[in-house]
Design goal:
By secondary structure, the protein is an alpha/beta fold. Helices cover 40% and strands 12% of the residues.
Length: 345
């Protein structure tokens, strides 16, 4: 069965939430069951949204910047904070996600009432895993001590959102990126596969059964480059299988990373061992720069994926969100979602 569904991983580099939702609804009229708000404004650069919260928390003080070795001077010296009090004395400020998503839901609700967004489509929100911000913004020696406190604060923020939005109209995605940096490279503060799976199980199980929950399995998107080129889907499949086996509830959707150039059978072979029988599967077959992709690559990717999934429905997405695409590229990228689906209709 060819791809029939479309998934959006979150970020869309447009001016505001209403523009994002209107553009998605008009340009991709088929195969969409969830619409994000585009993570516009302060959230556009992912967990940088949380750095301010760390810096304004009493008991956390700036430490010496850490050389991340990035190509751009913007990311070469990353600020870190350190604990100056007992971890139990930390009182986190409002982390901000629930408030901004509640505002976005009001726009979603109005557009759905007007018929712009089809009935039955859910409002999708994205949360970074607690480990992402902890490992990015806290000195390594303090991370294990403060992680439980921050995890609780982030879960409390999510609970506040779920208390404000009808459960039958929302879906939640966990952005799993730092974890693959730890598993595939030598990211500072790296955790074991067991430790990462335990954390992701807690994230999945925090959602009530009536709220769909998904995972975006990501290898980074700085300048549309990965922190490491995945050799195959093996690590992603292992994480999906182990989290699915450990969670008390189902994982409703998973988005997998597929590099734009990748068309080798071996890359997709691990799908033969994927256990997520009831999970919606999405693969990153929407290239950021299709003009640089070898002719026939998307068709070959579809053939290889479909050969493993057989008659199972599946869908497409971009490798990461579209927050780092140029704004004038967004209409073309959205149109490409529609065109790929239409090619197999």
């Amino acid at each position: 069965m060819p791809p029939t569904r479309v998934h959006f991983n979150g970020g869309v580099n447009l001016a505001d939430t209403e523009t994002v939702m209107r553009e998605i609804a008009s340009r991709v009229p088929r195969g969409v069951t969830r619409i994000p708000d585009g993570e516009t404004g302060d959230r556009q650069n992912w967990i940088f949204f949380q750095l301010e919260k760390f810096l304004q928390t009493p008991g956390l003080e700036p430490d010496d910047p850490v050389d991340m070795g990035a190509e751009s001077a913007e990311y070469t010296q990353m600020p870190k904070v350190r604990l100056t009090v007992d971890a139990g004395d930390i009182e986190w400020p409002n982390l901000g996600y629930a408030d901004v998503y509640a505002d976005s839901f009001a726009i979603f609700d109005r557009l759905q009432a007007e018929g712009v967004i089809p009935a039955g489509v859910r409002f999708q929100v994205q949360y970074p895993t607690p480990l992402a911000s902890i490992s990015a913004w806290l000195v390594e020696s303090d991370q294990d001590r403060l992680e439980p406190s921050y995890e609780k604060a982030l879960f409390d923020d999510l609970d506040r959102l779920l208390g404000a939005v009808p459960h039958h109209r929302i879906a939640v995605q966990w952005d799993v990126a730092v974890e693959f940096g730890m598993l595939e490279t030598s990211f500072p503060g790296a955790k074991s596969m067991d430790g990462i799976v335990e954390r992701l199980v807690r994230c999945v199980d925090h959602l009530p059964d009536e709220v769909p929950v998904g995972m975006h399995l990501c290898y980074g998107d700085y300048h549309h480059q990965h922190f490491k080129e995945p050799e195959s889907l093996a690590t992603q499949v292992e994480v999906a299988n182990r989290v699915g086996a450990g969670a008390r509830r189902a994982i409703d959707f998973i988005a997998f990373t597929v590099p734009q150039y990748q068309r080798q059978a071996g890359y997709f072979q691990p799908l033969a061992s994927l256990d997520a029988a009831q999970t919606e599967l999405y693969f990153a077959l929407v290239p950021y720069h299709p003009e640089s992709q070898a002719e026939g690559t998307t068709a070959e990717q579809v053939r290889l994926i479909d050969g493993h999934l057989c008659d199972r429905p599946w869908g497409i997405c971009t490798e990461c969100g579209m927050a780092r695409a140029q704004r004038d590229e967004i209409p073309t990228l959205l149109d490409l979602h529609r065109e790929i689906i239409a090619a197999y209709a």
